[in-house]
Amino acid sequence: MSIVVVGSVAYDGIKSPSGQVDRCLGGAATYFSLAASYFTQVRVVAVVGEDFTEQDEEVLRTRQVDTTGIEHAAGKSFFWRGEYGENLNEARTLETQLNVFQNFNPQVPTQYLDSEFLFLANIDPVLQGNVRRQMNGRVKLVGGDTMNYWITDPNHRKNLLQTLKGVDVLLINDAEAKLIAQESSVPRAARKVLEMGPRALVIKHGEYGATVFFKEREFGGGSHPFRAPALPMEEVRDPTGAGDSFAGGFMGYIASQKSLDREVFKRAMFYGGVMGSFAVERFGTERLQSLTRKEIDARYQVFRELTHIE
Amino acid sequence: MSIVVVGSVAYDGIKSPSGQVDRCLGGAATYFSLAASYFTQVRVVAVVGEDFTEQDEEVLRTRQVDTTGIEHAAGKSFFWRGEYGENLNEARTLETQLNVFQNFNPQVPTQYLDSEFLFLANIDPVLQGNVRRQMNGRVKLVGGDTMNYWITDPNHRKNLLQTLKGVDVLLINDAEAKLIAQESSVPRAARKVLEMGPRALVIKHGEYGATVFFKEREFGGGSHPFRAPALPMEEVRDPTGAGDSFAGGFMGYIASQKSLDREVFKRAMFYGGVMGSFAVERFGTERLQSLTRKEIDARYQVFRELTHIE
Q1: I want to staple B27 with a disulfide (CB 3.0 to 4.6 A). Which of A72, A253, B8, B80 is the partner?
Q2: Which residues of B touch A262 (CB under 8 A)?
Q3: In the 8-state DSSP scheme, what is residue A284?
Q4: In this structure, are residues B65 and B37 in contact, taking their beta carbons and an 8 Å threshold?
Q5: pLDDT one-digit tens code per residue, B15-49
Q6: Which member of B86, B87, B229 has the closest CB to residue A307?
Q7: Does position B221 have pLDDT exceeding 90, yes or no?
Q8: What is the ipTM of this complex?
């Protein structure tokens, strides 16, 4: 089954203790699409500028990602430049040029409308809501992401809370969960977020893995959470896109399955972690471009053994 | 099989968002002993002052902990007072009175010398080394803990590195591991610490669980780490002693087993997490005083299901 993703396709400049690149393909929808493409057909909705190269669009097409929904607008592509210190968990943003993204008004191509899965990457909650409505026909499961900026600004927050009502699975990190719920304890925050709309909440803990919390009775089970570990990695070159790659592996795996029960969710959590772990091994999207399903499944086994007990 | 623990038996004053107690039984060796007592015979070596009450010693004896090695010295018991903010991961120390602990010269009673397990809780590495030597006869496995103070001060560090050579399993947290190894990545830090002596290194991640790293070929396996999750807990009343209770559950379970292979280690990691999770549910040692093995095993199953995948 296919999945539609809306979000940024962009260029990044990245510096980390392992090196630096001045300009490389990036953006949440890019990382998501590449990661999900190993599991299912992906269709992307985004906007790029005149500087966006044919080769970079080809990176997506090579992975069978449908790029019909990438609008080419006058101006320059979204550009982000950031730096990671020794603590790789947090990027310091040095420069953000919204460029064509500033007037982004996502239009879902007609031929995308039969997709049963949708992922709303981190963009303005109003645009997330628009895309959600355009997809109202067939969509079975909506995943979503957001960030501090939309959570803390009072006007954006209102829009976000509205959009959350149409999101089945929200994927955010600890700090974002605490901010949305205005709660200092992660499990209490999770319970509050689940009252805002989502039927499941995936909280990403960076190098410590991720936990999924469920609303009681949703997806065939009780309210017990499930936690997937992350692999302790000696060499993290570039953390950019780890969360979007997690979301791509997670949603992509779910979209590839016939039904959606708790066991599928659990495996999806592991596949999310696996794709995030690949993403950070090289700068930009390099590692995600050249994987095989065999490599992915081998690492899935490593993740499983990492925490498996008889 | 029995386990000897050396460390502090003390009084604490604790304030957290859930309440406060001005004075309650505390100390690393106390938490460790109570937690381990559900798995094996525990023998404690410590020093207390004239203010230490018969009732508090009885708390340990009720759990069949051998208190022969608790020296009663002139003066007052070690006293620590601290406060937790909304972020329960870190205590702010408001007061530390070393009192009788200042001249602590631990003596292992003769009748303890047949114990095959030893835990060196967080005290001066020189004293840890002394106790290690007194136990040289029978001891099969030595566990140990330490803290920033001993790691960063150049003189203490020298002593610590000496003591580490006689420690089989070191249990510390992320920050301590990074400090000992002078490395910013936890997995790289782990590898360095394992070159300093320990055959296994347990790194505790607070609310995210713990990871054990192994030296290649030790305890019947390769160098693959194992990660045990922690239960997402809505109500953490008092984090004091969580790490010592983890160590008690971990070492206590190991001491209760006939052999020590990787599977035993994995289960020990889960039992460590279980005992830590009980400890934080009430102030001080209250919860650890009144458990049953049935409650412990039920929570072990919850931990296992939290991360179990078919």
Answers
A1: B8
A2: none
A3: T
A4: yes
A5: 999 999 999 999 999 999 999 999 999 999 999 99
A6: B229
A7: no
A8: 0.87
| Dihedral sign, Cα of residue B248, residue B254, residue B257, residue B263 | positive
Among residues B147, B158, B80, the alpha carbon closest in space to that of B120 is found at B147
The pTM score is 0.92
Interface of A with B (CB under 8 A): 17, 86-88, 184-188, 190-191, 205, 207-209, 211, 213, 224-229, 232-234, 236, 263, 266-267, 270, 302, 304-310
pLDDT in tens, A21-56: 999 999 999 999 999 999 999 999 999 999 999 999
